[in-house]
Amino acid sequence: MISLLLDTSNQALSVAVNRNSRMVAEINTNYKKTHSETLVDNIQKVLEIADIKKNELDRIIVAKGPGSYTGVRIGITVAKMLAKQLDIPVYTVSSLFVLAVSNGQEGSTVPLIDARRGHVYGAWYKIGPDDYTEIIAPQYADFTALSAEIEDAVYLLNGEERITIDIEKYTHVTPRISQTERYEKALKLEDADQLVPDYLRISEAERNWQENR
Predict the structure, then answer these.
(1) The Gcp-like domain covers which part of the protein (predicted)?
(2) What is the pLDDT of residue 205?
(3) Which of 42, 95, 152, 192 could link 83 by a cystine bridge, Cβ 3.0 to 4.6 Å?
């Protein structure tokens, strides 16, 4: 089983090729650059590094969100395009779960993505070497309220992203989507034609439009 994995949820970019759930090649960046400018090129590069042709791929796995509206949409669009072009299945995984397993942290972990104004996208997992338990499902929440529900857990954040919440201690993690395939139950088979991002909340523009209707 050869998989192409993509995560463009936020500032970081993670592209990988796995064989039988083990990483063969990956490219991970963590700087501000539009993913629409770099994603396709990095897909080609990681396939070349792995010495794998597109038509050898068996499936695509893409981070579905939450995160940057533009970033998530770019990854989903490219994943759908490739899945239909190559006639292979596309699977999704939560962008928060990607963070939860990216640095090999096991035990009680709380991956977070800053959502501004005191809010976060967050979840709570108990991570094992090849299995996990979801204690709190991915959600958009007030950070103070969410953290009040959590005990004895390691908070995971990408420290290169803008952090506006009041958090004293966390572990920096850069997303590595190659690590998610060890946890098959975290992957969801999708219909490529119906696949849409999972933002967990509507955009500010959509909210303003609804309020002014």
Answers:
(1) 31-147
(2) 46
(3) 192
| pLDDT of amino acid 202 | 65
Give how many domains the chain has, as a whole number: 2
With H, G, I as helix, E, B as strand and everything else as coil, classify residue 102.
Answer: coil
The H-or-E segment that residue 176 falls in is: none
Q: Give every residue of the chain whose pLDDT is below 50, as ranges.
A: 205-212
Residues 49, 202: Cα–Cα separation, whole Å? 38
Q: Distances in Å between the alpha carbon of 139 and those of 47, 75, 160, 213?
A: 34, 20, 22, 27
Please report, for residues 202, 205, 208, the alpha-carbon distance to residue 213 in angstroms, rounded to integers and kept in the order given.
Answer: 15, 12, 9
9 with 53, same domain: the answer is yes
Same domain, 90 and 105: no
Range of the domain at 194: 2-95+176-211
